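Feature request disguised as a bug: please show the residue count (683) next to histidine kinase in the output. Example input:
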Amino acid sequence: MTATVPRALRGRSPVRLGPVGRRRLLRTVVALAVAVVPACIALVVVFDELLRDAGRPDLTQGLTSGVVYVLAMVSASVVGAGLVLHRPRHPVGWLFLGLGTLQAVGPALTGYAAYGAIARPGSLPLATMAGLFADSVFVLWFVSIALVFHLTPDGRALSPRWAWAARATVGAGLLSVALVFLTPSHAEPPLEGLDNPLAAGGAVADVLDIARSVAVILTGAGLVVAAVSLLVRFRRARGTARQQLLWLAPAAVLIPVLVAASFVASYLRSQAVLDVVAGLFVVLLPIATALAITQYHLFDVDRILSRALTYALLTAVLAIVYVVVVVAVGAAAGGSQLSAVVATLAAVSVAGAARRRLQDAVDRRFNRRRFDAVRMVRHFVRAPEPGVSVEDVLRQAAGDPSLRVAYWVDGRREWVSGDGRPAAELGADDVVLAGHDRTIARVGAGPEVPPGLLRAVVTEARPELDNAGLRAAVALQLVEVRESRARIVSAADASRREIERNLHDGAQQHLVALAVKLGLARRLADGDTAALLDELRTDVQETLTQLRELAHGIYPPLLREHGLGEALRTAAARAVRPTTVDVATARRFAPGAEAAVYFCCLEAMQNAGKHAGDGASVTVHVGETDAGVEFEVSDDGAGFDPAVAGESHGFVNMRDRLGSLGGRLTVDSGPGRGTVVRGTLPV
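Example output, currently without the count:
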């Protein structure tokens, strides 16, 4: 025989869920597990009513006597749900979720068995089996609690030997539950009259009964061993890990004692004592874990719990508002629909403010870091400080100096930084802030910043991020204008260099050759012809000199080959006024930066030659600072009043040239006190 694959399934790959699908499946499973608790409580109430109707009120359980159990199952489910949603791979979350489910299922199955097997035998299917399982489910509580002790806080046992102890506890617990279905029932009230039809008889029954008792005792011993493992872990822990286990250590001491006390109470058939001690040991661990989470961030799920608590309180507040308004308006307006409409409007109107206040109150108690961060950002939004950017505040609030902010420029369809520069690629964990019709900004931080904290501060900083985004769009335009100006200046300099090279390699070489030929011709001539040739040769040499000076003014080869020092000293040698040059750096800068400094100094020297007056001298200084290169051209001449003379075309050219490269130019002058031209240029 050979196996065949159905045609419809051929070629199909197994269905694999993506991250979103797995997240939805996880939430669905958690929601179902949590929903088991109220469903089972409702079943207990239903079966109590059925038992009273059947004339057996003695079999009812009642909720008032099981308040501690209800608290235990609710606390275990809440802690488990929060941990599973935040860290689904951590086994302790699933153990708490299972513990809450087992604690809820037990009473529901007890009511089912009491009605279907004792009050009305045969009225419900498998009622006896349900009663047997319900009577033994406490062993599975032991197993769950023992595993929580073994696997807290990192999800691993202390060592392989401790791991084997955990496996032995699980095996003993499962064996004891299995043997319940093969041995005569020893159920506690209200199921003490339960009769197991599958129980073996004779000596076999005795052996299985002893085996079951041994398995239960071994499970209890396993719980004690697990508690010891947590105490050993607590003794070895240091710092935060020790504080996290601080709340669980007392539980590890008390729970085995309470379990032993519950066995004694059960043996003595003291139901009141059994209810108290059993209730305490099932509720102690979830409460201790919750305290460790809220106080010392055990499992790092305090944010989820705080958010859940906020919405739970918000729901209660809105419900109270709704009920109060319905009652008040209903009393005034009668039984019309007006009361419901007014109550709905009232609840909606207070929802936003109530949520913020409740979240603040919960964060102040359970998530102090988030509370302080949000308060810092909120204070800045209300009263921005001069010289402090929203990026600085976000970095301080999140405690991450590497936090980065980018703004979306919708018209350009690109992300830019606050100064208009292109931003880095979008990170997978970046928080994107969007309005109802547009994207505003995105904020990324390091892994040490919790995503919830980052989202909270970004949401709180929305008004300032919106304003900063508008400024970034303007900065982007300024950057583009500056780059455009730089390209124009660079093109002009390139054209200057090309003209200088063409003059040097073309017209200048022809004039040199012409002068040489005229000299040779002069040797062969005499009389008037010789005199004319001498005159022509002199004219050619003067033209060659003028051409060289013109070429130097366009783009001096000295600047290209030897830098600012040689070029400025050569220019000073040809200056009209006595000029001293002091270049305090031998560093070569970018060609565009050197050309900008050279031509600005040259323009200032020429202005001094024209307007400083006779007897004036000029000093040129070029230096280097941390910010870049700086220069100063000063003279002791006549000076001028800038308010009267205005700004000449030369100054405008200098500003444009420096501005295209991010530099600045200042002019300080006054009648009778000379002129100082200063420029700075980042390099």
